Amino acid sequence: MLRILWRLTRGYRLAPWRSPYLRWRIETYWGTKADRIGFTEFWRFAWRHRADLLRFLRWADRMDRSGTT
Fold it and tell me: Between helices 50-66 and 39-48, what is the axis angle to 10°?
């Protein structure tokens, strides 16, 4: 699971709220425009949806290990 998280934050590991991919995912999931997602909004989202995010990471890890992705 950490491997997937590492790949998703590539290039933005010290500032994941700046990742275009993660911002886009939050925008499609939460509805907040990607250009409005900053430090506070990112971490608020991560905290409120931590169970969903963990479930997504587990799913992505299973897909990666099975060679589906």
Answer: 80
